Amino acid sequence: MKGTIIAAAAAALSGVEAAQLHHRHGHPMLAKKHAYGTGTGYEDECVCTTVVETSYGEPSLVGVSEYEHPAETTVIEEVAVIPTAAVETCPTPGTYTFPATTVTLTETTVVCGATSTSVSPGTHTIGGVTTVVETATTVVCPYATTSTDDSGVVTSIIETTTYVCPSAGTYTIAPVTTECVEETVIVVPIVESYTPGTYTRPEVVTTITETDVVVVCPYTVSPVPEAETTEAAEVPITTTEEEEAPATTTAAEEYQETTTEVEAAATSAATSGGSSSLGSGNDHWAMTYTPYTDDSLCKSQGQIDDDIAAIAGAGFTAVRVYSTDCSTLPYIGGACADNGLKIILGIFINGDGCSNSNPTVPEQISAIAEWAQWDMVDAIVVGNEAIYNGYCTASEIADLVSTCKSEFSGYSGPYTTAETLNIWELDSTSSVLCDALDVIGANIHPYFNAGVTASTAGTFVAGQLDIIDSICPGKTGINLECGWPSAGSCIGSACPGSDAQATAISDIREKAGDRTCFFSFTNDMWKDAGSCGCEQSWGCGSLF
């Protein structure tokens, strides 16, 4: 959950450009639980004493960073109506609709935005505008700061300051000083520039399952030129008095953005677009399969043969497995070969970590390398929500994929990992994994989004795939896990049941079935029912 805090802090400043629509679900474990264990996600933790936030629209009370700036004269300018990403706060779980908005700029506009950076424990001076002068001079330049009214409401503004530079050198105007007790991510106001054009923010409908979630809705520009949103825009500086000297403006520090701009609506009524080497020509590509009996034992080879034959008879072209236990490779692999099915292999990662120090990881890699039936492998999925559960970092997943590539020398097909959309939208994920993976794998469960009904499940999935398609330029997404439970509790409008399951599966097949692994073949009675009462009830094989 630490990532949620960071996103909220950054999103509260209007320059953050990301669509962090969080659609999480309750499937952290998808292999035999008693074999691999469980783990927990991130915990909330406040580690920074200073947070600078911007509020557009309805203001909120926040803390104020204190710093001094050497302005001799100040002119406060009104913030223009500009297409910075809209920051919306969702205080309680539910379905929220944010209306479409259009902003037209007729001239270049300089506004207050935000950026973020990771800092180590200690006191840090960041932000501001840095100018380099070659002689004693006076400069006039705009800079981003905050203003607090009598009630404590903080608003980011642009101020223009006249600053006397007594000699040649480098001067930082209006930086922010903050103190942190441990490594964390902080945000600071910056100056941003937008070029003329028409900017559109589409209507966004999102379902929130947590409290106090911040949603950022970005604008897109049409027609070109596109909006230029920079971390520290070049701003005009006027020099006067002793000598007219050139002044160069740069960022006081360089920052790493923590979010990814996603140009897509949250939902789409059309069948998911994009092409991929994975998928099928019909409306049901693959079925997920785990070889466990109701009492958590391994199924026999005969039972597995019957199950895989039934999956093939239903018209599927591939079977997704999560690990190599219970003789998965010889039994399931052999049955797939006998029935003309491809197999989507999985390397399961638990709380013991991502590297060879976790004994189950090298065991699975060795088993796959020894099996080596590459001609029947559709894809290799390294990890199932391992980042979401806090078991791995994106870099560790990338390293593990590299290890697999070196061990599986005869395999030339695609590699991916399975994560939820909100994890893919983090820059810390996409910036690392886009180059490491061949396709973008997501687990998309409409049931865990309270505004989705069984009849709109496919529309929701197609919309999520549209977003996934935009995460890594040139690479398409696949839906590695998707279904609807036949029993359990309602989550808002999302209610389980046999009829609801049939309706949802039908809609998913129609809208996105050619890129979907349906979850799962039979009910998984070896699992706990979970807080939703639904975890055992996803079996949908009989509906095909």
Describe it for me?
The chain is of the alpha/beta class and 544 residues long. It folds into two domains: 2-26 and 40-251, no CATH class; 286-543, TIM Barrel, CATH 3.20.20. The chain contains ten helices and 26 strands. The strands form eight sheets. The chain has an eight-stranded parallel barrel, surrounded by six helices. Strands 1-9-8-17 form a four-stranded antiparallel beta sheet, with no helix packed on it. β24 (440-443), α9 and β25 (477-482) form a beta-alpha-beta unit. α3 runs parallel beside α4 and α6 (394-407) packs parallel to α8 (427-436). The two termini are 38 Å apart. Mean pLDDT is 75; it is low at 1-79 and 222-276.
Poorly predicted runs: 1-79, 222-276
How many β-strand stretches?
A: 26
Taken from the alpha-carbon principal axes, the silhouette is elongated
Largest sheet, if any?
8 strands, parallel, barrel
The span between the termini is 38 Å
Specify the CATH architecture of the largest domain. Answer: Alpha-Beta Barrel
- DSSP helix fraction: 10-25%
Strand-pairing-aware structural class: alpha/beta
Strand residues, percent: 25-35%
Q: Number of helical runs? A: 10
- What is the averaged pLDDT score? 75
| CATH class annotation of the largest domain | Alpha Beta
Reading side by side through the largest sheet, how are the strands ordered?
Answer: 19-20-21-22-23-24-25-26
CATH-defined topology of the largest domain? TIM Barrel
Cα Rg: 26 Å
The CATH homologous superfamily of the largest domain corresponds to Glycosidases
Number of domains as seen in the coordinates: 2
